[in-house]
Amino acid sequence: MTKKITNHTKPLKIPKIIILSSKFIAFLSTKWITIYASKLFTTPIKHKIPKREVEMDQKSIQQMIVVSSINRKVNVYEYGKSNKKILLVHGWSGRGTQLCKIADEVIKLGYSTVSFDAPAHGKSPGNSTIMVDFIASIIEIDKQFGPFVIAIGHSLGGMSVMNAIKKGFQVKKAVIIGSGDIVEDIIDDFVAKLELKPEISKLLCERFEKKHGGKMDDYSAYKAAEMTLIPTLVIHDENDPEVSVKAGIHIHEHLKNGELMLTKKLGHRKILADHQVIEKITNFIEN
């Protein structure tokens, strides 16, 4: 019997025109395709805010702040009025209101949330960004709006939370949902989707390392997990089409104080609004 594939568990496809243009540029020059692919990799898509996020957007106190370490501006959302603060970090091509269902529930428990549009996302200016910018934004927001008791991150936001903790960001507990893990695997997958030769992955890694310093694997979530002592809840869907469940399992294996929740048929984004997932998060926070 063939397993039914829902819209939530279908992988997002790269438009054919981008694949064809990538192949053409690769035929002309390895250098040019490396530059072109790096531009594609670091350019998020800005989506219109969906109806379910409008209430959080309207009820939040918002301000644009400067993240001085990267000289970028991010739009910050303060939601709720409690001094017990939870930081929410969205994923690639997301927004500061994307975790609104989680925010609504933790506010009922007596917390408030702070979230942000990462550089080049949502209302924050710019066209391109990378995980380094997400991490720097978390650390700056902690300075200006912290301290935080909990940090919750989705997808790239989960990887960024783990790396921020590794860099000294202090919270009592962390939750990561649908998080990526090994950076080189993410780049390999991106290059494969563009239908380019595997050697382009290596060239992309070298380009990013030269620009941002360090090794790409230094930013892998499992590396940060090895150094994370606080209780950390890892949530991942077995049918996630964008980030393999292997990532969540591997991160959990490297945590010293970790808990793993695997879901089914929720995919990469629907998982953020699932009532069982949110109940698991609230119980984890409270107990």
Automatic annotation (TrEMBL):
<dbReference type="InterPro" id="IPR000073">
    <property type="entry name" value="AB_hydrolase_1"/>
</dbReference>
<feature type="domain" description="AB hydrolase-1">
    <location>
        <begin position="86"/>
        <end position="179"/>
    </location>
</feature>
<protein>
    <submittedName>
        <fullName>Pimeloyl-ACP methyl ester carboxylesterase</fullName>
    </submittedName>
</protein>
<dbReference type="Pfam" id="PF12697">
    <property type="entry name" value="Abhydrolase_6"/>
</dbReference>
<dbReference type="InterPro" id="IPR029058">
    <property type="entry name" value="AB_hydrolase_fold"/>
</dbReference>
